[in-house]
Amino acid sequence: MSIAEKVQVSEELDQWLRDTRRYLHMNPELSLQEQNTARVVAGQLSELGVEHKTGVGGDGRSLYTPKEALELAGIKTGAITGGTGVIGIIHGRKPGKTILLRADMDALPMDEQNDVEYKSTNAGAMHSCGHDVHTTVLMGVAEVLNNMKDQFDGTVVLMFQPGEEGYGGAAAMINDGILDDPKVDAALALHVGVDGRAGQISVNSGANTAAADGLQIFVEGIGGHAARPHVGVDTTLVAAQIVVALQSIVSRNVDPGESAVVTIGKLHAGTASNIIPATAQIEGTVRTYNQDVRDHVEKRIKEIVEGIAASMGAKARVAYLRGYPPLFNDPAMVEIVREAGADVLGADNVLPSKPKMAGEDMAFVAERVPTCMFGLGVSDPDREIIYPPHHPRFDADEDALAVGVRVMATAALKYLGADS
């Protein structure tokens, strides 16, 4: 009997997965506030008899974002440790390799627009990125692998992570030693997506997600009456020139063979139509795959901003907020996931995927150990489950829960060399 044939999800477990996902979806918690979700996870691990530790991780931003940029942007970070992260450990029959399996737990600050019985009950919070699915799947994987621990050597580390949505919870859990005790040799994670249906996965080697950096620009001029522009320095005009000029970076300063995105999503200046504002603020994001390109884009942003401001009689300061690094999928780990997916679902249901400009803090793990993050299809056009993550109508076909459990568990067992 093959490993995939041994990794089954019973009707009872399948129903538990559906019920648990709906509970988590109805009770979303924002980043670093996942107390109830952590309680659910720890409770399930206790019921399974899985060794675990709570109170791990926290706000990881100060670990990778320069202090001076945080201060300029007025960002106060929280505690790095003592947070809501949960670590589970499943030991096989004897020592061997160690694989880490990860799920993120936090929701997004938005209201849900779906009309479903399991709609979010927390105003201003929604699991619109599918982390309720991720957490549920990993709890299911924990049950399956715990029941099979007499069939593999080595160790499985379960990483239930807070604060993925911009707070670097993975970096904080790494800082708390999740990769060191026991020493992790490789890692797997999944992320929901509507580019595939339930019963399909997608995966690619190389670049998977981009470095995601934040950008805040503060422009200072001289305010005054709108009828006397010649005695002031109009920060609205300066900011507008900066926004336009920043768009030249990708087209004129980045090798056409490389990828980069500079997007300005916010520009604020002034309080009234007849007042020249003394200050203006610009906010945006920068996405890159290549570290050299990332460094160069940051350099050019500062040069352009400061140069334009000075040429127009203003001053400008740039807070470049280094965020998540790019995530690169290890080819050997990708091949294991492809084999597992083909064994569980059939080769036709293992789809190729393309690099995404989204950010993902699993990248901090991928910097340290060979990693594969694969896509879990959750769409069902017949039921209008078609909206992508971060959309207020995002939802997931719950048939994908058992699929995620079987593929991830099978891939983990293949990596550990389980009995077939």
Provide tags for this entry.
420 residues, alpha/beta, Aminopeptidase, Alpha-Beta Plaits, 8-stranded mixed β-sheet, 4-stranded antiparallel β-sheet, 12 helices
Q: Helical residue percent?
A: 25-40%
The CATH topology of the largest domain is what? Aminopeptidase
Helix vs. strand class: alpha/beta
User: Which sequence of SSEs, written as H and E, runs from N to C?
Assistant: HHHEHEEHEHEEEEEHHEEEHEEHEHEH
Low-confidence stretches: none
What overall geometry do the principal axes of the alpha carbons give? Answer: elongated
- CATH homologous superfamily title of the largest domain: Zn peptidases
Domain unit count = 2
Q: What's the total helix number?
A: 12
CATH architecture of the largest domain: 3-Layer(aba) Sandwich
Q: What top-tier CATH class of the largest domain fits best?
A: Alpha Beta
Beta-sheet strand percentage? 25-35%
- Let me know the number of strands: 16
Rg: 23 Å
Read across the widest sheet, the strand sequence of neighbours is 1-2-4-3-5-16-6-15
Q: Average pLDDT, to the nearest integer?
A: 97
The span between the termini is 6 Å
